[in-house]
Amino acid sequence: MLHIQSTFSGFSVSDLAAAKQFYGEALGCVLEDKVGGISLTLPGGASAWMYQKADHQPAGYTMLDFVVDDIDAAHAALTDQGVVFEHYPGSPQDEKGIMRGKEHNMGPNIAWFKDPAGNILAVVEP
Question: How many folded domains does the chain comprise?
């Protein structure tokens, strides 16, 4: 039987230095430089591996969700850090780019944004 000790996710970026600054400063992840990339400890204790890739292609899906208690406060804090939120046509998003899923019986409140490499991230208020 296979014995798995732990798990983590990995993703690529086009500029490791820019991504390091973004994930550390704007999102508050704990970062540790390692050979070949950076180990991230995400809020809540999960981990991920970030590495630079010359032919990086941004994830076309939400690759990381950050759970928050107050989506409006999270939106304001990230906006203060220079984060620009995505607006998707046909989605019930408000002027801030927050999809008010709770109000539309469509799940949680969520707002999407991109990291410096174009990967899609989100803040989610369950």
Answer: 1
Q: Which tens digits make up the pLDDT trace of 5-28? A: 888 899 999 999 999 999 999 999
Q: What is the largest CA-CA distance in the chain?
A: 52
* Per-residue pLDDT tens over the stretch 39-87: 999 988 889 999 999 999 999 999 999 999 999 999 999 999 999 999 9
> Which domain, by its residues, includes 52?
9-125
4 confidence band (pLDDT: 50, 70, 90) = confident
- In this structure, is residue 115 part of a structural domain? yes
**Is position 2 within any domain?**
no
